């Protein structure tokens, strides 16, 4: 009997990460899902929960060692953990920007650096990084979030060139609005500049409306499964709005794309 594919997914407490863990377990994979506190986390059928804070190097090393001790290998790493931030770029403190990048970019880099020695030794593996359509599009009043996802895209494409010699490939999943708590509970910048307040409030309400009408995480999770287990390609956009936006960005003139974005976010 063939050994099951060993998959590690970060951030499975809720949302996209949790849905992806459920689907990969249902596909017969041996799934390890990371959470910051196992005592408070809700169990997932077929998934072994591993306590790990992707902002903490020691926590990551402990978590991956636990997984290797139990499974002896790691075939797929899915970097799903992330955070967001709403506010004007001018309102964003350096400390807030650093906190966001510490999770969205450096947290991802930490887990990649932890898993690569094992994947290089086995001369096989796949790394799937959850980006966003904001990895290739702008978003008013989400400048630092968009910047972090643009950085994830650059890191992923470059890393793929470096590690393919070892039988390892890197892929991106780029969802659009998804019905999760990430955007509904998006933290705002501590600094508030009056000149921006009207538009920030408009954008905040537009995001809430879009999330309320967005599809559940299952569609994105299915795309993650394909990126993790299917034939390799760099970019995976879930069916619907994300795929449409990718095509518009690639083929349409910048002017109409910009107008469409501003309309989406409620801006004149």
Structure overview:
With 268 residues, the protein is an alpha/beta fold. The protein has a single domain (6-264), classed as NAD(P)-binding Rossmann-like Domain (Rossmann fold, 3-Layer(aba) Sandwich). 50% of the residues lie in helices and 12% in strands. Strands 3-2-1-4-5-6-7 form a 7-stranded parallel β-sheet, with helices on both faces. Strand 5 (125-130), helix 5 (143-163) and strand 6 form a beta-alpha-beta unit. Helix 1 (15-26) crosses helix 8 (218-229), helix 2 packs parallel to helix 4 and helix 3 packs parallel to helix 5. The longest helix is centred in the middle third of the chain and has 21 residues, at 143-163. It is globular. The mean pLDDT is 95.
Topology:
Blueprint: E1 6-9, H1 15-26, E2 30-35, E3 47-51, H2 57-71, E4 76-79, H3 94-104, H4 106-122, E5 125-130, H5 143-163, E6 168-173, H6 181-184, H7 194-212, H8 218-229, E7 235-236, H9 241-251, H10 254-264
Parallel strand pairs: 1-2, 1-4, 2-3, 4-5, 5-6, 6-7
Helix pairs in contact: 1-8, 2-4, 3-5
Notable characteristics:
268 residues; alpha/beta; Rossmann fold; 7-stranded parallel beta sheet; 10 helices; globular
Q: Please, how many helices?
A: 10
- Strand adjacency order, main sheet: 3-2-1-4-5-6-7
Order of helix and strand elements from N to C terminus: EHEEHEHHEHEHHHEHH
Largest sheet data = 7 strands, parallel
Based on secondary structure, the structural category is alpha/beta
What distance separates the N and C termini? 60 Å
Taking pLDDT < 50 over at least 5 consecutive residues as the criterion, the unreliable ranges are none
Q: Mean pLDDT score, rounded? A: 95
Helix content: 40-55%
């Amino acid at each position: 009997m063939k050994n099951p594919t060993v998959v590690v997914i970060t951030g499975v407490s809720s949302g996209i990460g949790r849905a992806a863990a459920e689907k990969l377990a249902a596909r017969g994979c041996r799934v390890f899902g990371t959470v910051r506190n196992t005592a408070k986390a809700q169990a997932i059928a077929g998934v072994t929960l591993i306590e790990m804070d992707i902002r903490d190097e020691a926590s990551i090393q402990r978590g991956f060692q636990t997984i290797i001790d139990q499974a002896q290998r790691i075939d797929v790493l899915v970097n799903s953990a992330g955070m967001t931030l709403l506010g004007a770029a001018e309102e964003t403190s350096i400390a807030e920007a650093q906190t966001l990048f510490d999770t969205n970019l450096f947290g991802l880099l930490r887990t990649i650096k932890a898993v690569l020695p094992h994947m290089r030794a086995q001369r096989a593996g796949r790394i799937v990084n959850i980006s966003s359509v904001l990895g290739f599009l702008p978003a008013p009043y989400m400048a630092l979030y968009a910047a972090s996802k643009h950085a994830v895209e650059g890191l992923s494409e470059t890393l793929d060139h470096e590690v393919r010699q070892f039988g390892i490939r890197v892929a991106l999943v780029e969802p659009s609005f998804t019905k999760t708590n990430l955007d509904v509970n998006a933290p705002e910048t501590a600094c508030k500049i009056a000149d921006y307040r009207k538009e920030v409030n408009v954008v905040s309400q537009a995001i809430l409306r879009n999330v309320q009408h967005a599809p559940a995480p299952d569609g994105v999770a299915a795309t993650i499964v394909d990126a993790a287990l299917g034939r390799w390609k760099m970019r995976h956009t879930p069916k619907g709005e994300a795929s449409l936006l990718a095509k518009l960005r690639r083929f349409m003139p910048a002017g109409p794309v910009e107008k469409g974005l501003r309309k989406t976010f409620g801006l004149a």
